[in-house]
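R.M. (postdoc): so does anyone remember the format we settled on? I'll just put the structure tokens first.
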């Protein structure tokens, strides 16, 4: 018989007696056990048994070790420490009672013994074996013991529960020993496969959190059929900070007033924070109290604290105790971060940001963020550790720039962009970069500024930061300190110092050589090439005021030295022509009023307007440099881009009559909204002497640049974006202003190569124009053909055509009129008289415009009753009608055939020769239209009518739209025997 060393029988007898006396107690015990087994302890088996092992080791004062061995569907959990005793057995068999009393309170995390009920999730037959003896529990044996009582009320209660009796109320003595090296073992034969699956999962999930939550354990060993794991030395994998304390009597009365009685006897608290040393470590996202709860947790750390739990053992209970422990946890967390900051760790990643995961998480985060601003956790740039309340961040500054700023900005810390939320949560003061820049300035040497600029090298790639640096101080070569790098000149080897000095009094701002850094160029400074210096506003001011300068020759030398090195540097800088230079008499004259002695420019320009350049100036700087600043050896060209006709640029405003040109060429006479992409204009045309124009026009035709500026039409784009080709400024000016000896304009005269007929109606151009480039002649207004006429020229031709004193033959007028009808321009007023064909006497005659009609088809030529004929065809006829304000013939006569005629077939040979002719025609003995006799006609339906063979040929050709075949049709009608000959000829048409 097994020895009952723990008094198990006595416990059974007392429990059974109580149940028998009051079956309701049986029901209460069964319900309580079921609530624990199915509720708060359903998946806490591994944790609760580890907690019991830790308590046993702590009470024994030995290193805690625990073994989980799972084989053959049985889990054995062995541990070191105080072995099982009678009080322990009573605790196991007494729900909500504990053998762990206040004397172990400071070193135990147990929860009054009820945690052992977690075994009920997997077994109905738990066994506890110790070196001092053993006990077992059994659902079946408990039910049997109840049956042996023969108590009808208890039997009824058991039946109501389908035979489900409590397991842990009746202990039975048993024999057995724990594994070697251990003091106690819990043996759990598993109920079924579901229980086995749960055990496997719980063993797999066991991790360092067990060691951290249970400091009494040094080693946890887990063995299964296919795995063997050992958990120990957690401090090697975690940064750990522990805090603990004991409540005073007053605190206990306040904080523990709402807690259970036995809990009120435990006045201690503890908090453990653990940070993984490896970034790969996965953290359990729940609060441990100190074993895992279901309270979600968002911080990147492990928190284990003695939070009070509710009855489910899953959630932290609300109340003053929880509030106090939240405060202790926040203070401890701040201390952990301080320790990590002291070792150089980045603690900003540990600062709570974002949204909380739950109510308790919110309380913890809020309290941590209340404590942290007063805790030294932030490393300053100078190496000290600062409280966030003392720290300062410069927005946009990187590490290199912060190093430079550190002596100037107390409390400055490094701040990455990804740290912004954490720093804001810590209430770190932010200073805008622009604010810091505004505060910079003092007696620092140029070399210090260069270091500062170099530190900005990675920051200036950001456009917003470049904007913030807009007032950055920059030391200049003249000793001044100015704000803003934009527009400053960076000295280079191409420009001598004396050249820069010459412009100093005009405000040229050159960076001190010792402060030069590429960052300044990114911030808008300009490398001082000759071009950039010439473009500087201060240099322009010096040039424009060079006549009043103390030493104008120094200004001239400074400018010409740069231009002489590369004359293209002056391209587009039209205002350089204001630079005063010495003329041959030693007087100061603007460059744009100087010419090279003996040059074409001197030969053709008015001597009262220009003077020759001094020879020594020409020799010193060379002709290309002088021409680049406006001195003339030939005529000069001014160019401008993107010209708005209603806002002409300064470069063009000195051109004579340029505003008038803009009005004349603007679409519909309005300059607003009209523009020119590229404009080249020949300057000083108003200074050319009257007798020099033959030479000038020869010069304009021989020089490519001048020729282009004269003959190339300017492309004007109106507000509707339609382009329009107009005369160049030079062509317009010459047409408007150049007069010959007779006082009449050169423009509008007959070109030496003009059509003879057209030339008879125009004034003759001077003989010297024959030697000009033909395109030059056209550009200056000489007329080669009708298309060269302008409105005034067209009016002149029409007036002379209507001159009755002129003898004009039919051929000339027909050829000229057909061209005039295609023009898209009109004189100021339609002519009162018109030259028409004289049908009676042949030739031409002049008649009132009211007595003329425009004839646009050959059949209307038969209608002499309509008036004098102005002959034209197609579009030319419509143009002539508009030009002379004379109606078309069909507009004054109906053209209706009198009578019907006799239908006849068109001969087959005619249709073979001209397939387009209609199949039939209408023969008339006498054909009249509107009462007027004619030989042929084509009616409105296109049917041909004729009274003669000649008329039939014309009617068929006109009806077929093949007027050019009228002679062939007439030939075959008159001589049918020639049909074969004509057919053969038609093969080659």
């Amino acid at each position: 018989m097994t020895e009952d060393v723990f008094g198990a029988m006595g416990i059974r007898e007392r429990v059974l007696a109580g149940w028998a006396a009051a079956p309701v107690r049986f029901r209460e015990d069964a319900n309580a056990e079921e609530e624990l087994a199915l509720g708060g302890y359903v998946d806490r088996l591994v944790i609760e048994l580890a907690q019991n092992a830790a308590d046993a080791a702590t009470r024994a004062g030995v290193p805690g070790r625990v073994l989980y061995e799972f084989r053959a569907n049985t889990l054995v959990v062995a541990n070191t420490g105080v072995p099982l005793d009678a009080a322990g057995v009573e605790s196991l068999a007494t729900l909500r009672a504990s053998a762990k009393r206040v004397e172990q309170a400071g070193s135990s995390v147990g929860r009054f013994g009820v945690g052992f009920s977690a075994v009920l999730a997997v077994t109905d037959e738990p066994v506890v074996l110790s070196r001092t003896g053993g006990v077992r529990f059994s659902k079946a044996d408990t039910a049997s013991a109840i049956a042996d009582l023969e108590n009808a009320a208890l039997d009824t209660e058991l039946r109501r529960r389908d035979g489900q009796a409590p397991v842990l109320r009746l202990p039975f003595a048993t024999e057995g020993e724990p594994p070697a090296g251990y003091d106690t073992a819990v043996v759990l034969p598993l109920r079924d496969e579901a229980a086995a699956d749960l055990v496997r999962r719980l063993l797999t999930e066991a991790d360092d959190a067990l060691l951290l939550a249970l400091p009494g354990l040094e080693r946890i060993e887990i063995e299964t059929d296919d795995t063997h794991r050992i958990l120990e030395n957690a401090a090697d994998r975690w940064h750990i900070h522990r805090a603990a304390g004991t409540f005073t009597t007053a605190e206990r009365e306040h904080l523990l007033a709402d807690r259970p009685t036995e809990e009120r006897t435990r006045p201690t608290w503890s908090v453990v924070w653990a940070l993984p040393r490896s970034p790969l470590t996965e953290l359990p996202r729940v609060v441990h109290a100190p074993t895992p709860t279901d309270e979600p947790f968002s911080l990147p750390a492990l928190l284990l604290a003695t939070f009070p739990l509710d009855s489910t053992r899953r959630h932290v209970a609300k109340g003053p105790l929880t509030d106090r422990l939240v405060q202790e946890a926040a203070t401890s967390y701040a201390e952990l971060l301080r320790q990590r900051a002291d070792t150089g760790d980045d603690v900003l990643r540990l600062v709570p940001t974002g949204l909380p995961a739950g109510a308790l998480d919110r309380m913890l985060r809020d309290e941590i963020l209340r404590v942290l601003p007063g805790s030294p956790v932030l490393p300053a740039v100078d190496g000290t550790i600062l409280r966030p309340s003392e720290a300062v961040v410069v927005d946009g500054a990187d590490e290199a720039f912060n190093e430079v700023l550190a002596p100037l900005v107390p409390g400055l810390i490094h701040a990455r962009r990804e740290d912004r939320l954490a720093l804001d949560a810590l209430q770190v003061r932010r200073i805008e970069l622009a604010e810091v820049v505004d505060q910079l300035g003092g007696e620092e040497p140029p070399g210090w500024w260069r270091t500062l600029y170099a530190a900005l090298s990675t920051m200036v790639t950001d456009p917003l930061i470049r904007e913030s640096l807009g007032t950055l101080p920059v030391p200049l070569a003249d000793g001044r300190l100015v704000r803003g790098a934009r527009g400053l000149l960076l000295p280079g080897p191409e420009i001598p110092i004396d050249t820069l000095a010459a412009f100093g009094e005009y405000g040229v701002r050159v960076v001190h050589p010792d402060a030069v850094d590429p960052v300044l160029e990114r911030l808008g400074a300009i490398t001082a090439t000759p071009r950039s210096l010439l473009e500087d506003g201060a240099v322009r001011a010096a040039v424009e005021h060079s006549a009043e300068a103390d030493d104008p020759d120094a200004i001239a030398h400074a400018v010409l030295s740069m231009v002489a090195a590369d004359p293209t540097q002056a391209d587009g800088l039209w205002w350089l022509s204001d630079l005063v230079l010495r003329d041959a008499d030693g007087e100061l004259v603007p460059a744009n009023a100087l010419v090279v002695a003996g040059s074409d420019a001197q030969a053709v320009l008015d001597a009262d307007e220009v003077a020759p350049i001094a020879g020594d100036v020409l020799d010193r700087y060379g002709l290309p440099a002088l021409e680049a600043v406006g001195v003339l050896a030939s005529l000069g060209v001014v160019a401008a881009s993107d010209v708005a006709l209603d806002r002409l640029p300064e470069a063009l405003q000195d051109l004579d009559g340029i505003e008038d040109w803009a009005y004349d060429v603007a679409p519909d006479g309005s300059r607003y909204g009209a523009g020119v992409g590229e404009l080249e204009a020949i300057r000083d045309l108003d200074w050319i002497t009257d007798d020099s124009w033959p030479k000038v026009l020869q010069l304009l035709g021989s020089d490519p640049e001048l020729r282009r500026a004269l003959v190339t039409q300017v492309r004007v784009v109106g507000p509707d974006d339609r382009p329009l080709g107009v005369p160049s400024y030079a062509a317009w000016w010459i047409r408007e202003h150049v007069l010959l000896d007779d006082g009449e304009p050169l423009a509008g005269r007959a070109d030496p190569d003009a059509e003879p007929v057209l030339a008879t109606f125009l004034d003759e151009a001077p003989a010297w124009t024959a030697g000009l480039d033909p395109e030059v002649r056209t550009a200056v207004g000489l007329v080669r053909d009708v298309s060269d006429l302008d409105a005034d020229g067209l009016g002149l031709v029409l007036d002379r055509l209507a001159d009755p004193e002129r003898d004009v033959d039919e051929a000339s007028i027909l050829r000229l009129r057909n061209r005039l009808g295609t023009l898209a321009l009109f004189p100021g007023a339609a002519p009162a008289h018109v030259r028409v064909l004289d049908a009676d006497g042949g030739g031409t005659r002049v008649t009132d415009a009211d007595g003329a009609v425009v004839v646009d088809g050959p059949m209307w030529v038969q209608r002499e009753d309509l008036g004098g004929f102005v002959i034209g065809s197609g579009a030319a006829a419509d143009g002539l009608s508009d030009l002379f304000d004379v109606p078309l013939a069909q507009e004054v006569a109906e053209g209706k055939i009198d009578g019907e005629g006799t239908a006849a077939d068109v001969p087959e040979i005619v249709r073979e020769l001209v397939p387009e002719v209609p199949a039939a025609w209408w023969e008339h003995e006498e054909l009249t239209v509107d009462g007027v006799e004619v030989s042929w006609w084509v009616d409105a339906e296109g049917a041909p009518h004729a009274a003669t063979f000649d008329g039939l040929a014309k009617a068929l050709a006109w009806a077929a739209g093949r007027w050019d075949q009228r002679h062939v049709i007439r030939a075959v009608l008159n001589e049918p025997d020639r049909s074969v000959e004509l057919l053969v000829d038609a093969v080659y048409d």
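R.M.: ...and that's the designed sequence above, right after the tokens. Also worth knowing: Residues 721 and 753 are 37 Å apart (CA to CA). The chain is about 35% helix and 15% strand.
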